[in-house]
Every structure is written in structure tokens, then in C-alpha cells.
Design a protein that fits this description.
4 copies of one chain form a homotetramer. Chain A is α/β, with parallel strands linked by helices. Chain A is built from 14 helices and 13 strands.
């Protein structure tokens, strides 16, 4: 079976695993207070071009979103997101479980537009009864989005302006950030993200680690007591080294970008093949998730040779599906799939 | 520096790490739905002597306690624990953050006695105003306790009887369970624990894994929606394989007990050395945590050669300290430490 | 100023206040355990035609919705509501603060249709990833709705069928229930509501009391510990008598229906006057809230003589406004308003 | 039956009820935005000798404690209280349900001593592992305490100093504040309380109203969004006038102190009678709750003529009981009781 189901179906990139092997028997203090975590954080700061960033390692994406959002919001505030946003759909109500509403803006391509946000905010504060409503207190975006799309620098700049006008932190879910950064269709650099977002995370789980995400506060705005709240949430590993070592490897010799480039190269080849063979794209994604519309016959045939996922049943003759490439995609699998399209 | 600070200062047992290396590039489904997790669960069931146990893998101890307790309790119920219990002291209020009070019973040795519990329950239901109070709805114990002590079979049986009388689940925190099972001073088997406890966890983090705990429900009593609640809590790893593979290794060829025995052997040698050299034990622990009372001079001298922790300042001339052995304790370190006592 | 702003701008119906005066110095036990509360509950049971109903008095609508929903839902479940529903818009995120998502169905007239609900449920369980989503676990409706509309018996029956098929309790917010029951356009009786809903509340605050709502469980399904959870939520009055006495008066000699009829008579006269004078209705409401579209000039002129509220700015020339009648509406005010339209 | 069960067994003081009657049909805006609430707040400010106090009306004591504590604490903080404190014992875990631990200091007389608090704080910050613990973030006291005792000015000053040193707000539960202010054994004035406490509440429910408490912030420190959070908690009355009018009456012509004095006069006569007739006091209370030790025979005999409550079974021959006087205590009842002692 050819593997295009998701970007978390294999273990860790070999360089990442090597690090864990090398340092396995070294005795280190717990809870992320070790030299490896410190070193990894410094490498991330260098990657981001800012030596004053506050970095906290966590284990997974939902956990990171949960902690980032619930510790930044005041109790009467809600987070604004696209209705397609991961936090609104596929995190089992984690944000609401933490006590906060997710206010949604309709989105066709996974993005929140600055214009829509501005209109929403004006309407909110224009409503006489808004003291009886959840206050929009933060904006959540993902980059790449759940639909593989990307923000341009202009789009993110506009969003950030609206956020600042209303004093709302802008938070970027970077579960697949690497795949966005190396896309040829993006003009958004990591330095832009650091400047425009108040907090964001660099995803490890989907870009080469066994687990782990790096949550980054860009404005010296990590909430007081964040480490205690991490523990309180059940999100602090006794062996913090597990994540620290993996990120150390990921940010050594540009590994993070190198392996992201591999995934994007594979994804673009796959997209081109789909287009050339007459398939209709469901959305034109510039990143490692490719969405295409299949007929029931095509779905049945391709399901026999490759693992991928059904995204949405459009109607009885059209099914949107998703193929995902990653750092682990094998060239031979890609060739085989293309030849069988 | 000789390492006796804790049982989570090294990485994973080499056999555990080997498993992660071997299966690294195998493509597997996410969220614990893979073959490795299934196999590991079966091995745990065999270890426990019961093929109908419900097992859920989680990443850390606080997370496991939080999920176990908050999903078993009804909203108006509280968990009863020793005042020394980990959930009452060192988990940053995770249980309360989930909405539940920790009701405490005074304890000198880390254990909850069945007699104390019974008296407490009688007093509670004898109070006319108890409808305005938190209902005791579950009992939390640790084995070994935070002070290294163990429950005898008779003690656990009595506790379980009181719990059943009042229809409260009995939950055992087994962060260091292996070290308790192999202690020569314990008559409590894993089969007893399965029979007497309603749920418990087998700790990995402190007994040979990089991360991971196995939460076990013994009475077909895993709450409905448990997997969804795990996601909701930010506690579900996309790469569930990470924990599954480690537990598979841990429960192959009796590795879990073998490496626990090593820790206990080291701990007993250390205790004997302390006694022989005239040190006073703070508590007589039969497991891998050894507590001894030092003078300020002894503390200063030993601090220069070994890492260990200060437990409690008793008075100006007496300081209780803790030395911990583990699967990773090196024989030569132990010898060196003993020779320097 | 003529008072048409809302149905909670005056105190209590004189008969209700009289009861408080009469029994003021009688010494009674606290927390709703008194004879007055018992008697009021019995009168409510007789009104509903069922002597086995479980009744709990609470102080306000948001509080009642919060307790009803948060105690009925399991932790991983969400409540389904119309996007216009009070709990989704004007309760400051109370439901989410209790940990639960509000899943919304688009609605034009304030109602949830059984057909829409059924389609939603089929889509939910048809989604392979639904274990990572909030489970719809309860349905919230209001009757009359926030837009003054009513469910027919057929509509409520269909909704109840879908709820039962999916084992979801059906909950009716009856903040203005009286006004719905006496509307000539409704074929839904209190007996129907008792049969079709799993729980509902009879609102006092908007129908003649100073405060107080009666939450009713129809299937012997009041959650265990409900009284303790009421206390825990800060929702239990020490002087439970305050609500008990008021409901006793409200359900003596049919007062509840009598005063509701007065409000509806006034509302229908007002609606007819609007229509006759050429105003456009925003929605054709059969209950005590009347929605009409004004021009900016009309708005300015009417604002000088009457208190009412702006509902929605449709465009620069059309503003939807709301006039509300109640048990307290004075005939002379109504006449004056009509003459000035 | 003579009524000494509690101070919430009757309705409202006649002057309070009169106000509700007089203004019943006046049309007023909802949610506490009316003239009556404003006027009542001003009267409270005058009573307190400070015109800049922030005042919020709420309905009951548990609700007030819940909102005050949960909105002032940061998420990783806990409230410190005497182990006898109402929030720790009789509020059904409301504080924990809001996510916060109650850290307790042992107390024999219901008070928290500044010295004990200081020692506790020093120990907390002296503990190397305190980042894994709940941070003490606020101090809760009651005045009078649950045992009827009072803080002296010196005691409250010391407490306030420790609180300021550690930047913790000091919060006073004044459910029975009036009874404390008029006690001849207290040197603590309302002005002292305003100066020394960061927030406190003036209780209405136990001192003459049907319901209602006035929560007061003394340092311009009401949390942002407090009104929205009140709604979110289900604690905002649509008819805020209900509480506003009652407090208006209570703080007109010194009514609050007058009716408190009546209760204290009765309580002191009762205490003296107990002492003269040879009863042993359980605690020497200077306020409206009187605690005395009875034999089983005395208990049986007195239970036939008066309602009072059993506080604690000391042993088979000694039972501590509580007699409570209030604004509503009738002179003839008191005489009758004394004559039957």
C-alpha cells in the first residue's frame, strides 16, 4: 500500500532518532530544565532571527492550541477562527472544555481574511448588547491551513493590523509550518511570522519528530506561571529531553527546511500529474496536502493501491479526497502512484 | 556527579529504544489505532493475567491522573487521597483545575488506611449538611507511595472493601509500580491489584521509557467517550505508536520486572550501607526511593559527589534527603557512593 | 415614556407580591426545603397534568440553561441549538464556560427543524473522524423563540423523534412559555410539552415574578446530585421561599395563563395596528414580541414617545425594531402608542 | 417552636419589603442598570466612607464567593482559607469547580492568623518544587467567622501586611458583616475593612433581605469584564432592581446597623443566660451565633421547644449546638427560651 494518508504515519526523521540514541544514557534534569532543551531553544531563536523569543516545548498540536489559547484569553473572551479551523472541528471541543467559545468566520479556503475580521469586530462593538456576549479576544489561524492554503505577506499584515487595532493577540497554528515556509508560492518568511504574530508554534509531529511542538511567544508575552499551567494541564513531560533533543536535531544544519522541501517537491509533482491526467482539483493547494475530486470508480480503483483519505462527499458522482506527502514520502511510492493515476 | 536525583534522569532502556529504531520507518495509522499499540496492550493483559482489561496509553503521570480522576468522578464528587498524595501536592492543582476537590486524609507514611477511610465516610454521611458538601466519589492511592512505602495485600483488601461499600472506584497511581511489584517486602501481586482496584496505571516514564503510562480499567468500566476525552484534554498523540512500541518492548521477555529488580537491588544495598554507617533513616522504604536524615555537614559533603534531593528540613541539624535508584543506576556509581558515605 | 422595551421592566404581578408580603414573617427552613416550595411544585405538577414531575426552582434564565445543559451533557458532548439561540448569542459564553460547545444549525425564524437536525446527525455519524469531534448530546430550543415564533405540535413531535432516535434529551427554554401557551396560533399544549420534552423550564422572570424559573424534568431524569450541583454553581438561594412563594401565587387560580393572555391580547392589537398603518413586519410573530421594520425617520419619531429596542440594522433605510408587551403592559400605553404610529 | 435555627429563616425586614412594594410597578431598565441600583450603591459608598468604591450586586453568598475568588485568581493560583472556612466545607466544591484549589491553614476559632499565613508563604517559596504546586494567590476570611468570632483591628492589619508583601488580595466574606460591626467586642470599623481588604461583601440574605449581597472592590481593582463574567456565571438578574431596592432600604436611616444591633443584643442576653445557668460555652462568640455544649438530656428537652442546630458531636455525653439570633428574633421568643433553659 502506497502511503499518502497523512504526514504522521512514520516515526522520526533518522537524524532526529539518531540524536535520541546518542544522548540516551546521559543523565539530565527533568521537566525541560536540561541543556538539550536550552540548546534547542537557542537554535530555534537563531532560525527565527530573534534571540529574545520565549519558547516552550509541548507534545502535540491540540495540547499546544489548548494551552496557547486558554492561557492568553481572559475568562470572558473567545477565540476567533475560520469555521474550517482545526480547533473548531477536530479537537473534540478542547477549547470549549477550557471554558472558551470559538467564534467562527465563514471561510471557503481555510483562511481568515482581515477584511472579514474587521467587519466582524465593528459589528460586535456596534451591538448594544455586547456586554452579554463573549468578547472576541484572540485570533487563531493555521499556516498552512487545514486546506493546504497559505497566507501571503499582505494578507497576514492586514490581519495583524486588525488584531492590533482591537488589542487581540494573533496566534498561528504551525503544525505544518515547514511545508508552508518552503512553498514557492509563499512570500511569507519566518521573520515575517515572528514580527506579525504574537505567538505561533513550529510543528514537529508532522515534520519529522515522534512528537513535540515548539510554542513561541514573540512579544515577551508568555503568560506568568506558564510552566505551572503546563504542568496543571498534564502537558509537562518529566523527560522534557525527549522533545528538546528532537528539536535540536531538527534545527541543526537546516534539517527542518530540507525535509520540508522534499515533501513539497513530491506534492507539486503529484499535483502536476493530477492536472495533466485531467483530474479536477478540489482546491489548488501549494503545500503538502493535495485535494482532488474523484469519481466513485476512481475512488475505488485508487483505494486499492494507495492509502489516502476521503475529505468530503460532494455528490453521488464527486468525492473530494486528500493525498498527503511528507518528509517520509518515498520517491518510488510517488512514481508508482503517478503511474497508476 | 553520581546520579541519584530521580528515576527519570536518563532516556529509555536500550531495549525500548531499539524497538523505536527498528520500526521507525514503518507506516502506521495514527492516534493509537496501530498494530503496535494493540500488541502492547495484549502483552499488558497477559502480564496482568486478564484478557478483558481496557487499556489506554497516555504520555505522563499528571496527565494520566487527571484523565482517570476527572472522567470517573461525577461533577459533584471529589477524590479522596492522602495529604501527601502527588495529586494533592505536586501536580499544580490539575485535579482542581478539572473541577474537583481533593479531600485529604492525614497520612504519616504516604498510605491511606481503610480504617481512616471508613471513619471518614461514616462522618460524611452522618453530617446533616452533607448535601452542601463535595461527595467523596473515588479513592486515589499510589503504590509505591510518594514516600516509597507499599500496601500489603491485607491493607489493599480493606481499602477496596470500604470503597465497594460506598460505591467509590479505587484508583492506584502506579508511576513506580514495577519497583513495588518486585520488592521483597510486598505480598501484593499484579493479579491482586487487578482484582482490588477499579483502575490503575502502569508507569513507563520512571521505569524505562522516554514517556508513556498505561491506564487500565479492570471492570469494563472505561467511561464512554474516553478516547474523545483524551483528545479533548490534549492528551492524544498523533503518533500513538511512540508509547505503544515502548510498552511492547517493556512487556516482552519480562523486561519491566527485570529492570525494576535492578533498581530495588541497588536501593537495598544503599539502605543497608546507610544503616551500617550509622545514618538514621527518615522512613524505612522497601522500594527505589531511600530517605535518610543528614546533618548539615553531611549534606554539604555528599552534595559535592552525588545528585540527590532535599526532602524536608526537619530542624537546623537534621535534613531529610532522598536518594533514588532506577533501571539506569550504574553499579559503579552505587559502589562509589557507598564508599563515600 | 411608553414602556415596550422588554418583559422584565416592572416588578412582580401584584398577586405575586402579595404572597411575599403575607408570608414574610413566617419562619421556614432554608434552601428550598420549605412548605411553600413544596406546595408550589405541586401546583406546577397539576398545571402540567403529571404528578411525578421533578421540579427545581432557580433564579434566572441563563442560570437555568447553564445548569440544565451542563448537568445533562456528558463531558465530551455538545448541545445543538439554532444559531439564533439565546445560549449561542446572549449568555456571555456560559455554556462554553461550563466546558461544552454549542453546535449550531442555521435558522431563519429561531426554530430548529427536525429535518435539519436529522440531516446533521446523519452527517456527524457518517464522518470517519467523528471521534475527534464534539458529540451532539442534547438539543436546545426556545418556545417562544428569540424571534417570537412558536413550534407546532407536528414540528415538536418530529424534533422529539429525532432526539429519541439518537438518544439526545430535548430541552425547551420556556423563559416566555406562558406567552406561547396562550397564543391562538399555537396547537401545542403544556401536556404535549411535558410528553415531548425531556426537560424544560417555566419562566417566571418574564411572566410576572421578580425572579425565578421552574426547571422541570419529565422522565424521572433529574441528574443525581442535582441539588448539590445547584449549590456548587452558586445558584441555590438560602431563602428558597422567595421563588417558591412567587410560583405558588403564579399557579394559583390560573394566574400564569391569565396574565399571559393580557400580554398576547396587547401584542395582537399592536401587530394589527402596525399592519393597518402600512408598516412592514420583520417577522410575523404570534407572541408578545413584535418585530417591525422602521425607516430612520420613523425610528427617530417613535423613539421620542416609547421605549423599544433596535433589533438589527438591515440597511441605511430599514431598521428592524422590537416592541414587547407583558403582563404589565397598560391599556392606556398601548392605545397611546397605536394612536401615535 | 421558638426559632433559633439560623438567620435566614424569615423573609425580609418590613422596611425592605416596603420598598419593593412601593416601586413595584415603576418601569426600569434591566440587569442592574437602573436608578435604584445606582442609588443603593451610592448609599453603600457613603456607609463605607469612600465614594470611589466599585460595587456589584449579586444574589447569594456562595455565588459571591465564587465570582469574587474565581475572577481575581490567575489560573495557576489557589485561595488560602482557614480549614473551617465556608468555601472549604459548605459550598459543595464551588471554588474547585471553578478550577482553583482551596489551600487550608488549620484554625481553632475560624480565623486565619497573619503569623500562620506568613510562615506558610515562607515555606511555599522556600520549596524548590513550588513551580509544580498551586500558587497561593488570594486570602479568604470571614468576619464574623463561621464560629461567630471576630478579627481585631490588629489581627486584620497583620493579615493585610502579609497579603501585601506577597501581592495577594485579601478578601472578606461579610455574609454576617452587620452582626460583626455592632458587636461591642470588635474594634474593627467599616472604614478599617475598606482600607485593609482588597475586596469584601456586605451580606444581605442573613441581615434583612430576601436575597442579595453587595460585593465591593476597594482599590479600583474590579476585574475587567466583571459584568460579562457575572452573566456568564448565571449570576446576573434580569430584574437587578430586586437587589438594588433592598439594599437601598437597608442603607437608608442606618437600618442595616439598627437591625444588626437587635440581633446582637438578643445574642448577648442568650449567652449570659447560658453562662448563668451553668452551661459550658463551646466557643465564646461575640456575635449572633452562640455555641454551647449540651448533654443528651438537655438536647432532647430543648429540641422540643426550640429550633437550633447540632454543630458537632464531641462525645457521647457532650454535643455542641448552635443558637442563632437575627434581625427577626422576637423578644418574647428569647424570653421564653431563656426561661426554659
Amino acid at each position: 500500500m502506497l502511503s499518502f494518508l497523512s504526514d504522521y504515519t512514520e516515526g522520526a526523521h533518522p537524524e532526529v532518532l539518531k540524536k535520541l540514541n546518542e544522548l540516551n544514557m546521559v543523565s539530565l534534569p527533568g521537566y525541560g530544565e536540561d541543556e538539550c532543551c536550552r540548546e534547542a531553544k537557542n537554535k530555534i531563536r537563531r532560525f527565527c532571527g530573534r534571540d529574545d523569543l520565549q519558547v516552550q516545548f509541548l507534545t502535540g498540536g491540540t495540547q499546544t492550541n489548548l494551552l496557547a489559547i486558554s492561557t492568553m484569553l481572559k475568562r470572558y473572551e473567545a477565540v476567533v477562527a475560520a469555521d474550517t479551523g482545526h480547533i473548531n472541528v477536530h479537537e473534540a471541543g478542547a477549547i470549549e472544555f477550557s471554558g472558551h467559545k470559538v467564534l467562527t468566520l465563514p471561510s471557503k479556503d481555510g483562511r481568515v481574511s482581515g477584511e472579514d475580521l474587521e467587519e466582524y469586530m465593528e459589528r460586535f462593538y456596534g451591538d448594544d448588547t455586547h456586554e452579554h456576549m463573549c468578547f472576541p479576544g484572540m485570533v487563531y489561524i493555521s499556516h498552512p491551513t487545514e486546506l493546504g492554503t497559505l497566507y501571503s505577506k499582505a494578507q497576514l499584515t492586514k490581519l495583524a493590523e486588525v488584531c492590533r487595532k482591537y488589542e487581540m493577540p494573533l496566534y498561528m497554528d504551525g503544525a505544518r509550518l515547514g511545508y508552508g515556509l518552503v512553498s514557492s508560492e509563499s512570500d511569507l518568511t519566518i521573520e515575517d511570522i515572528v514580527e506579525l504574530c504574537d505567538l505561533f508554534y513550529i510543528g514537529g509531529t508532522k515534520v519529522g519528530t515522534l512528537c513535540g511542538e515548539a510554542l513561541i511567544f514573540t512579544k515577551n508575552n508568555m503568560p506568568r506561571g506558564f510552566s505551572t499551567m503546563t504542568k496543571q494541564q498534564g502537558a509537562m513531560l518529566a523527560k522534557g529531553r525527549l522533545v528538546g533533543m528532537q528539536f535540536d536535531a531538527l534545527f541543526t544544519d537546516d534539517l527542518y527546511l530540507k525535509i520540508s522541501r522534499h515533501a513539497i517537491k513530491c506534492a507539486m509533482e503529484l499535483k502536476q500529474a493530477f492536472v495533466e491526467k485531467g483530474y479536477t482539483l478540489y482546491i489548488d493547494s501549494p503545500t503538502n496536502q493535495q485535494f482532488v475530486i474523484l469519481s466513485p470508480e476512481q475512488l475505488e480503483r485508487l483505494s486499492k493501491i494507495a492509502a489516502f483519505s476521503v475529505w468530503e462527499k460532494i455528490d453521488s458522482q464527486h468525492i473530494a479526497v486528500r493525498f498527503v506527502t511528507s518528509w517520509a514520502t518515498r520517491e518510488e511510492d510517488l512514481k508508482e502512484l503517478i503511474s497508476r493515476l
